[in-house]
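Annex B. Sample input.
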Amino acid sequence: MSQENSNKKGKGGIVILVIACILLSALAVVSIIFIVRKSREDSGETEITASATTEAPATEMPVTEKPTTEAPTTEKPTTEEPTTEEPTTEALPDGTKYEVPAPCGDLYVLDGQLFNPCCAGHGTGDYYAEMVNYVGSRLPKGVQLYNILAPTAFGACLSVDVQEEMIGNNQPALIEYIYGQIDPKAAKTVPAYVNITRHNAEYIYFNSDHHWTQWGAYYAYQSWCETKGIPYHEPDFYKKKYAFPGYLGYFYGLANKPKFLSENPDTVEAFVPNGTNDMVFTDKDGNEIAWDVVRDYSERNGSYVCFIAGDQPLVTIENPEIKDGSACVLIKESYGNAFAPLLVDHYQYVYVVDYRYYDRNVGQLIADHKVKDVIILNNLEAIGAGRVDMIRDLFR
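Annex B, continued. Sample output.
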């Protein structure tokens, strides 16, 4: 019995030892599981957070952030390019004259340039705007009317304060007022005076004449293209240009032929259209004459008449390089002469009407030639009631 008891005790000790080992092993396993689970949970939390960030903010943020970081890079060229292509306002020197010009014959002079103080009032402006609205209402559906009011040298080169002091009014304010009275449904107004004034340190008006130079007309053309929504041709686009020195214009006589001008006459520059330099004009007697869009006046003193043969009732230009049937009518006084050649490379047909001499119905001309664009161009010396009635009469 004692041996059995001894064996039983031995077996019981072994059992206890085995149980203890099992318990210790279980405890170790539990600890390991706990540690692993804890580790996994910690890892799982990180993955969930990362996953949430990836699926919501993190996949979308790169998409939303990339534009934010790249947008300035892609947008800067688009916001900066127009600033450099546009008449660079900040980079351009200011040619505005802040002194009151001195009397010179029937005119005034400052820095060798003659000025004719002129600026109509609001009543004249209202009458002009009414005419533009009337013309717009008379055009067939699908025909777009543009109006260009050009400042003279007085309005573009002298400061507003000087203009106010001399005549109690200023041309930029008057143009803004007139444009405000024109119905946008009747016509698109072209802010040419803004672009012209930006370039007033350049040779944009003659010193001895009331006209603008080719450059003044060019900056008005730039503004017209921007208003129409088409790219304008850079000056380098024109393969042929003329420069005619020795020009003494209309103001020269009004100022009693001052010596400072005869010793330093103007130069007439002209851009020849690429598409064609051929045109036909109808003179005041009804004769049709073949001529040049820009005539070579190298053999004589420069002349503003080099542009479209001067003031003719009707000029017809067909550009053989364009075959789309496009056509425009330019209704103008003499400021339009330097402007007309710049239209040639945009249309198959350009019709130029001088409202002072044309005695037919322009509405019929528009209908006959399927014209889609009509441009009225006037300088601020030419918007009196008599001139306005002439334009209105073309559409009766």
